[in-house]
């Protein structure tokens, strides 16, 4: 069975949508562990309640990115994942880390890449006068939010949208998109 390790930093609603999709047999995979860089990430509680292994690798206890990424990779590799799923994981990863998980490291980003890499994507899409916005699931490469796109979901931007209202509609789409993209990867691995 395809093994997933999910990395989170906070709320973990995308992580939850993946676990729910597995429980509903919409993804043929198992979540081997959920790992957070923040000890207080709310998503850890949900994973624990589902009897999924959890771990914390607190970036604040490391002096530099290299040592954090090394410790994180060691923790991840304990679980021998086929795919490492970034789900609201808000740390930039070193090229060494990214290279170690070539073709295995997946992220969800709240924009229609290649538009709006980085942070504050919803406000920036509104400010740019975009008519459409959305989310992208992509392979992670060393360049931030730049790897090959696997799947995207679109929403229309409405005249009275705030960043918050738009973010909420995009997040609804993310919760459909991420499980679908992961199942696509699982299928392609079995071909
Ligand atoms: C999601 O909207 C995700 O696309 C975004 O953070 C949110 C996490 O929510 N990710 C990024 O901005 C990555 N740079 P969640 O913790 O509820 O899944």
Automatic annotation (TrEMBL):
Keywords: Purine biosynthesis, Transferase. Its EC number is 2.1.2.2. N(1)-(5-phospho-beta-D-ribosyl)glycinamide binds at residues 12-14. The active site is at residue 109. The keyword Lipid biosynthesis does not apply. Residues 3-182 form the Formyl transferase N-terminal domain. It catalyses: N(1)-(5-phospho-beta-D-ribosyl)glycinamide + (6R)-10-formyltetrahydrofolate = N(2)-formyl-N(1)-(5-phospho-beta-D-ribosyl)glycinamide + (6S)-5,6,7,8-tetrahydrofolate + H(+). It comes from the Bacteria. The keyword Cytoplasm does not apply. It holds the Pfam family Formyl_trans_N. Pathway: Purine metabolism; IMP biosynthesis via de novo pathway; N(2)-formyl-N(1)-(5-phospho-D-ribosyl)glycinamide from N(1)-(5-phospho-D-ribosyl)glycinamide (10-formyl THF route): step 1/1. PROSITE patterns: GART. InterPro entries: Formyl_transf_N, Formyl_transf_N_sf, GART, GART_AS. (6R)-10-formyltetrahydrofolate binds at residues 65, 90-93, 107. The record marks 145 as: Raises pKa of active site His. HAMAP family: PurN (MF_01930). Belongs to the GART family. Catalyzes the transfer of a formyl group from 10-formyltetrahydrofolate to 5-phospho-ribosyl-glycinamide (GAR), producing 5-phospho-ribosyl-N-formylglycinamide (FGAR) and tetrahydrofolate. This is Phosphoribosylglycinamide formyltransferase. It comes from Methylophaga marina. The gene is purN.
